[in-house]
Each structure stands twice: as C-alpha cells, then as structure tokens.
Write a structure and sequence with these properties.
The longest helix has 21 residues. This protein has 21 helices and 20 strands. The protein has 570 residues and is α+β, with helices and mostly antiparallel strands. The radius of gyration is 26 Å and the shape is globular. β3 and β4 form a beta hairpin. Bound molecules: adenosine-5'-triphosphate (ATP).
Length: 570
C-alpha cells in the first residue's frame, strides 16, 4: 500500500475531532485492509511495533531536526525558529517541504513497506556511526515524501501522531468493522457491548492490536481464545476506591481477603518455557535489566515451569527495614547504569498478590481464592526479597479495622479488599477488589518552579515545585506531577499549565524553569511528613493538583502556620 493512502486517513482523522466520526473513518479503512497488510494496524496508533514490544523508535527531537535539515537543505537553526512558531515538528516539516517542493512533482512512490523497513531498523542500530545511519534512514524517507507524508513521518518518529486515535477508538473501529448488528434494538446494543468487551479483553491479554484484528477477522471464538503468554506483558487489572471498610465489604462480599496496599510500583513477573524471567511495568515496559535481584529472587524462591505473577515492588530502608514512599525508589525503573550500586542503595521487596498463569494454564477465570492459595504454595516467603503480600481473610469489621490501623502505622498507604470468588479481569477497573486509603486533604499553593517532561511529554512543563508562605517568604513544600490530564479537552492539563507558566519565566537551567510565583493551584494530599528536602521543612505525600485557582494570588495561599497545625492534628 502507498503511504499516501494512509496519510489521507490520518488527515481525515486529524480534521474530525468527533470520536464517532473517527471510528467510522477507521472502520472504512479497516474494511479495505488486505490480510497481508494487517501490520498497518500499528501505524494507526502511530506505532511500528506492537505495544508489548520493548522496541521503540526512540528518536530525539534533535535528530529529527537534523534529518529534516539534511533532506530539505534548510538549516537546523531556521527549523528551530519555525518550530517555535508552529509548536509541532510535523507541521514544520510539512511547511518546509511545501516551500521546497513547490516546483517539483512527487512520484508518489513511498510505500508503507518502505516506512516499516526503515523505521524498524532504527532501534536496531548500535555502536559507531549510529547517528549518521539513523539520519540517512530518516532522510531517505523524507526525500521521497510529499509535504503531508513528511508531517506524519516526523510525528511517527517522535511517537506523537496527534490524530486522536487511542486504544478505545481502535477497539470500537474493529467492532464496527467485523460485528455489525443491523437494527438498533436493545439486543443489538447488548451484543455490541459484549463484543466490545471481548475485543478489549483480547487486547488486554495480548497487548497486540494486530493480533486482535486478525482474531476479529476469524470470529468471536478466536477472540475468546486469546491466551496469556509468559514473556509478554498484559494490561493489569485495576481496582475501585471505597471510603470505608464497611463500603468495601458491601462491594466485595464477605469474607474478603485484605492485604497491604504497598506504595511501590506494579510489576508483572513472568517465567516462560525457556526459563527466562521477564519483568514488566504497568505500562508494558520491560524492566528486567533494571532489577537483576528480583530476577534472582524469582529464580530461587518461586516454583514452577512457567508462570505470570502480579505484584507490587516496594522500597525499604536498609537500616531501619521500614518501607519507603514510591518517590524515593522511582528512579530505579528508568536507571540503565550503575545498576548494582543503586540496587544496594535502593533495594525493593516484591509483594506478590496475584497469579495469572501457571505451568501452561491461564488462571484468570479461576476464583481469586484458588489463585491466592496457589501463589502461597509456590512462593517461599523471604521478607525483604519476595513474598506473598501480607494479608488476612476475614468477615469481621473490627478485625479488618485493626489490620487497617496496623498498616497505616507501618507507614503504608492503605489496604486492598478483594472478592474471594472473582476472576482476574485484565485491563479493567472493576469492583473485584477495592482500595481504601485515608481521606484526602488540600491546600492552595503557588507554583515557583517547573520542569519539562521527557518522551511524549517533552515540550511540556509536567512537574511543579509548589510553595506555601511564611509572611513574605515562599517556602517549598513538595513537587507535584499528578492530577493533570494528558489532553486539553479532558480538563486541567499539562498543556494549559505550561501555557500559563511560560510567560512567568524568570530563568531556565537544564529542564528546570523558575517562574514568578503567580499561579495558584489546589493540591490534594494524603498526609504531611517532616522533610529536610524542602525549605518549609515539610513534604506533602501523594500530592496531586486538582484545580487551578486563578481567582487567587500568592497572597492567598496556605501559610506555614496552617501546615504546622495540620501536622499537629495527626
Ligand atoms: P493508586 O494511585 O491508588 O495506586 P492506581 O490507579 O495506580 O491507584 P488502582 O488499581 O486504583 O491503581 O489501585 C491499586 C494499585 O495499588 C495497583 O495498581 C498496585 O500498583 C498497587 N498495589 C499495592 N499493593 C497492592 C496489593 N496488595 N494488591 C493490589 N494492588 C496493590
């Protein structure tokens, strides 16, 4: 297929913000897709590899600019200038190529096959001359591309297609393409809902839209048969939130399993037929190399030929053996060097709370209590290494409350309450389990500094240092990077804050920008800790921004006195 045909679809999708319309456009395209072309499904989400794959195109903005310079003859500096005006390197490429190619005719020869061929080579390149080789691969594509094609090549390279197609839209398009119900009756609606769930589940298990698409061509029983595969990640099950233990029991039934809600990060650990251990994050990233000790614990202390475990890795203090908040160990996820050193400084304990696959068999349809018994049987409990999550099974409210109190006193976040009979539903936030955490509190604080994000969030200020006041002085009380939306239409987003903060810039060092203290936000948090890190002497735990308070100025923010009072209350 010609790349121009796909770009035409991209253009239509970009022009039509309505989700229904997008589903329609995608579905028309899918109907025409030949069986040998199903790999194109990845490109619809702007990807070249399946979601479960470790491979990423991983090209920096700098390199993309260089490639554009190389193929257009326009200098890097000029490109950056246009970029500043247009804010999107895709559009920059389009406009530069338009000018450059005004008088030339395109042969319209770029094929999707060629796009895949060159893009797939990018992550493979290593060693000497890599940059040059990457530049050539990209420049080769840009040279034979039309302005519109150049726009999407750039955006695909930067992994930001900007056509508003996410997983849900792809799913609905697949449903619309293959499972048509003629009349809009109640039964039709019910059937559509069932099929939609089935398609979603097939993706959550396989994390591969091409496979889902191919299964959908063959029919529902193929979708149903989508299997978990050790060595590949899955979309993990998520939980609901309840305010009290009583509500928790109402939701999950009695008796329930109650376990610690550890403040770490989710780890799916798999052992495949070749005895290879792999560790995945909730976002499907393979982090096995970053956690050699976890691999070793699993090899030593978990029995079984093949399995998939769901767990939370939590950091602890080597001396006091107390658990640490997630922020203190978060750097381990991305760290690629000095692994041994950091492993000693920031050790983690793996708390296994579910098992989804064992010795060639998927367990996700089995009741939770059976899965739990199995994991207790096969994991040799090794505190501060690997263990089944600390849990009780009870139908007694007082016993549950006692357990909750103990967990909070140990400094952990809260508890999980789980239905003993429930299956495991990949990817879904269902009430098979609930989390219970202390009520949130909030303060209005002012942003004094912000940091640019990386990857998909590059170009946006995504982490904010907030301050309270002590008379005339502003004192830092924490860094917040959660609570904000990824898209402007969804509510208070990074984009909106970035646009408001940029004009307030005082100075910039590296990725960090100091700003005039004018933007006030409401920050919700769970508790306050003493902390030498921030000038106020305190740090908010689990902070998230919930509102922009443009009606307020830095004069109206929380005072140190108020914060102290809040700490004393506890
Ligand atoms: P939160 O920010 O509260 O962790 P979330 O949106 O990341 O929420 P939820 O499914 O709502 O995820 O809450 C459960 C999360 O808590 C899991 O994703 C997991 O990372 C973590 N967790 C810690 N301990 C457990 C446990 N024992 N069982 C299940 N999840 C646990």
């Amino acid at each position: 297929m010609k790349y121009a045909e796909l770009c035409q679809i991209y253009e239509e999708l970009e022009k039509n913000p309505s989700r229904l319309k997008k589903v329609e456009i995608l579905s028309e395209f899918m109907k025409k897709l030949k069986r040998e072309d199903t790999e194109i499904i990845y490109l619809l989400k702007g990807k070249v590899f399946p979601d479960y794959s470790e491979k990423e195109i991983g090209i920096s903005e700098k390199l993309v600019i260089k490639a554009l310079a190389k193929s257009s003859g326009v200098s890097d500096k000029e490109i950056v200038n246009v970029w500043k005006k247009l804010g999107d390197l895709g559009k920059v490429a389009e406009s530069i190529m338009e000018k450059k190619k005004q008088n030339t005719l395109f042969s319209n020869s770029l094929t999707i096959q060629k796009i895949f061929e060159n893009f797939k080579k990018l992550p493979e390149l290593e060693g000497k001359g890599t940059v040059e080789k990457k530049l050539s691969l990209i420049a080769e594509l840009l040279t034979s591309a039309s302005p519109t094609e150049s726009k999407y090549i750039m955006r695909t390279l930067l992994e930001d297609l900007r056509i508003g197609v996410a997983d849900g839209t792809l799913r609905d398009a697949i449903v619309k393409t293959f499972f048509k119900f003629e009349k809009e009756t109640e039964t039709d609606k019910e059937n559509t809902k069932k099929i939609t769930e089935l398609v979603q589940e097939s993706y959550d298990i396989s994390t591969d839209w091409r496979l889902v698409f191919e299964n959908a061509i063959k029919g529902t029983n193929y979708l149903e048969k989508t299997m978990l595969k050790p060595g590949k990640p899955l979309k993990v099950m998520l939980y609901l939130k309840e305010a009290t233990i009583e509500d928790g029991f109402t939701r999950v039934g009695k008796p329930a399993l109650i376990d610690y809600k550890y403040d770490g990060f989710r780890m799916v650990i798999t052992k495949d037929e070749d005895c290879e251990i792999n560790i995945f994050t909730r976002r499907l990233d393979n982090v096995t190399k970053q956690f050699p000790e976890v691999k070793e614990y699993v090899e030593k202390f978990v029995e079984g030929k093949t399995f998939m475990l769901d767990s939370e890795a939590v950091g602890y203090d080597i001396k006091t053996k107390k658990y640490k908040p997630f922020q203190e160990i978060s750097q381990r996820i991305k760290r690629k060097y000095d692994i041994e050193k950091i492993q000693k400084e920031l050790p983690v304990e793996v708390n296994v709370f579910d098992i989804l696959y064992y010795d060639g068999e998927s367990l996700i349809k089995k009741p939770f209590i059976e899965r739990r018994k199995l994991l207790e049987k096969i994991i040799k409990k090794q505190p501060f290494k690997i263990r089944p999550s600390q849990a009780i099974i009870t139908d007694n409210i007082d016993e549950a409350k006692k357990f909750y109190k103990k967990v909070l006193e140990s400094g952990e976040e809260g508890i999980m309450m789980k239905n003993l009979q429930a299956p495991y539903k990949p990817g879904a936030r269902v009430g098979y389990g609930v989390k219970i955490k202390p009520e949130d509190n909030e303060f209005d604080l002012v942003i004094i500094e912000a940091e640019y994000g990386t990857g998909k969030r590059a170009g946006w200020l995504t982490s904010y240092t907030v301050a309270c006041k002590d008379y005339e002085k502003l004192l830092e009380i924490g860094k917040v990077s959660t609570g904000l939306k990824e898209k402007e239409e969804e509510g208070l987003s990074f984009m909106e804050l970035t646009k408001k903060l940029k004009p307030l810039k005082i100075s910039e060092t590296g990725r960090s920008v100091k700003v005039k203290p004018e933007l006030v936000v409401t920050v919700v948090y769970q508790n306050i800790q003493k902390s030498p890190t921030y000038s106020s002497g305190y740090a908010l735990r689990f902070p998230r921004i919930t509102r922009l308070r443009e009606d307020r100025s830095s004069k109206d923010i929380a005072t140190l006195e108020e914060i102290r009072k809040e700490v004393e209350k506890k």
